[in-house]
Design a protein that fits this description.
By secondary structure, this protein is of the alpha+beta class. The chain has one domain (about 5-50). The protein is about 40% helix and about 15% strand. It contains 2 helices and 2 strands. A two-stranded antiparallel ribbon has the order 1-2. The chain is globular, with a radius of gyration of 10 Å.
Length: about 60
C-alpha cells in the first residue's frame, strides 16, 4: 500500500474484515504501516489484503 489510490483499492476489503473506521495506513511512514483497531484477527486482515492484491507482514 504505497499511495492514496492503493488505500482506495483496499478500503472495501478492509472495511469488510476490520470494520469501517477501524483501520488506517500511515502513508508518511516509509514502511506504510497498517494499524487495525477492534476485534479483527490478523488472518482476516491478511486475507482481505490478499483479496485486494496486496501482502502484509507483521511488524516485529
Amino acid at each position: 500500500i504505497k499511495c492514496d489510490a492503493c488505500v482506495a483499492k483496499v478500503t472495501p476489503y478492509l472495511n469488510e474484515s476490520a470494520g469501517e473506521g477501524n483501520w488506517q495506513v500511515d502513508l508518511k511512514n516509509p514502511q506504510r504501516v497498517l494499524t487495525v483497531h477492534g476485534e479483527a484477527s490478523e488472518k482476516a486482515v491478511k486475507d482481505a489484503l490478499e483479496k485486494a492484491g496486496y501482502k502484509a507482514e507483521p511488524l516485529g
